[in-house]
Design goal:
19% strand, 6 helices, alpha/beta, globular
Length: 138
């Protein structure tokens, strides 16, 4: 199992580089300031779509901008995957729709939320090699 260190790390670039060197980073779309350093010094990095942070703050994520960001980085040799956009308190149908429009050329990971059915989790497990477990709000 790979342990991804969440960013941003804070501090000066040199300190961030020392901390992340040889590790794996998880870079959120809503706070991408460490992606340059992570792409240079990490073994690998992955992207978080920021849906949970946005949900907590009552804002929405521009998923088309997220997809564009993922498209720019997905060919980098250190890129592992991107969390596919999801709706924290959404229905299975809403989240399946977002999975359905995810481009096949970007390695994505769908999210199964704790309020969703175990049948959906089982279905995702047959189709996807990795699944993220996500919050359901309350």
């Amino acid at each position: 199992m790979i342990h991804y260190h969440g960013t941003p790390c804070g501090g000066r670039r040199e300190a961030v580089a020392r901390f992340l060197a040889g590790r794996h980073a998880f870079v959120p779309f809503v706070r991408p300031e460490d992606i340059g350093t992570a792409s240079e010094v990490c073994e690998s990095f992955a992207f978080d779509n920021g849906a949970f942070s946005a949900w907590k703050r009552g804002i929405s994520i521009d998923f088309s901008a997220y997809l564009e960001w993922c498209s720019r980085w997905c060919r980098h040799p250190g890129f592992d995957f991107a969390i596919i956009p999801d709706v924290i308190e959404g229905t299975e149908e809403e989240n399946d729709k977002l999975i359905g429009i995810w481009p096949s050329d970007i390695r994505g990971v769908p999210v199964w939320h704790l309020h969703e059915s175990l049948a959906r989790l089982e279905s995702l497990s047959y189709t996807w090699p990795m699944i993220a477990l996500g919050s359901s709000g309350e």
